[in-house]
Amino acid sequence: MVMAVAPPAPLVDQFGRTIRSLRVSVTDRCNFRCLYCMPEEGLPWLPNTRLMTFDEIERLVRLFVSLGIREVRLTGGEPTLRAGLPELIRRLAAIPGLEDLSLTTNGFLLKKLAGPLAEAGLRRVNVSLDSLDRARFAQLTRRDALDRVLEGLREVEKYPTLWPIKVNAVTMPEMSEEDILAFCELARSRAYVVRFLEYMPLDAAGNWDLSQVLPGATVLAIIRRYYALVPVPSRPGSTARCWRFADGRGEIGFINPVTEPFCAECNRLRLTADGQLRTCLFSTGDWDLLTPLRAGASDGELTAIIRAAVAHKEKKHRINEGAAFVRPNRSMSQIGG
Ligand code: SF4
Predict the structure, then answer these.
(1) Total number of domains constituting the chain
(2) Tens of pLDDT along 94-139?
(3) Residues with C-beta less than 6 Å from any ligand 1 atom
(4) Which atom of ligand 1 is nearest to the CA of 319?
(5) Residue 248's domain is classified under what CATH number?
(6) Cα–Cα distance between 107 and 94 in angstroms, integer?
(7) Which of 7, 116, 118, 220 is the 20 to 30 A CA-CA neighbour of 312?
(8) Considering only CA atoms, which of 209, 223, 133 is closest in space to residue 173?
(9) Partners of 276 in the beta sheet?
(10) Which residue has the CA at smallest separation from atom 5 of ligand 1?
(11) Ligand 1, closest atom to CA 283?
(12) What is the pTM of this model?
């Protein structure tokens, strides 16, 4: 008689939040130099020997899926710089139980990669794009590459399996009303879901302060002066609050981690490119999975580390709590967003 083996208990933290989403960084390198992320000269990159191999990523993602993870988002640095990315996507897309596989990218290489990624089984693309003005784009990213990114977005449009196409725009006080309305027109004309994302204290230079945050509510108020909007119900654990244009043309969203934190519903973990588990974007420490994995740890031993990490998952970030807020031990490109 075959005994049914009970599935492992899901990952639930001490605040009753069930973990369903994992962000996996596949590289810390990037081909852009965004002002709010890293210095012009870049950062000391991880040596290849410390990067998770595709076998290691696949093994860990399989393990996480067995523990209840249903959504995986691949991030960086810039994930499209990782050689063989379509092959990794193909392997992850084949994991039974994985319901969603997406990618966050700056879009620079999408013209070339959109097809291979779609054919490999990618489900969605989030493109980071902070201005539709060429000069402003170049100033923000230190790259004159707006045309390439827009070309990449057009290429993604050709693959229905990659819809809905999401565009994430980091908002800063310098973002003009013109910029904001240009993004609304992008959402309306191309049916992209454009999300405005508040600037977070994850810059490598450590210059962030609250005065540099343009609240999502301010951006929403500006848009409402020009367009009628209808709220879109959000899924549990979703970070964005979305609105549809009343005339049905396109959707916009707001990710307001600073002024309207969504930590109470957080269902996310992060795996850095060097195999460190992070329980919060603003964690001040990591849980090492790669060293024990390379030392021959069993799935059971790795699961014990994952469960211990989840048991210590932070309740919330403390950005708005003055001195109580301690900056995380890694910057955005070293975590993967
Ligand atoms: S700040 Fe941390 S706890 Fe809050 S939503 Fe983000 S990852 Fe979750």
Answers:
(1) 1
(2) 999 999 999 999 999 999 999 999 999 999 999 999 999 999 999 9
(3) 257, 262-263, 266, 268, 280-282, 314, 316-317
(4) 1
(5) 3.20.20.70
(6) 24
(7) 7
(8) 209
(9) 288
(10) 263
(11) 2
(12) 0.95
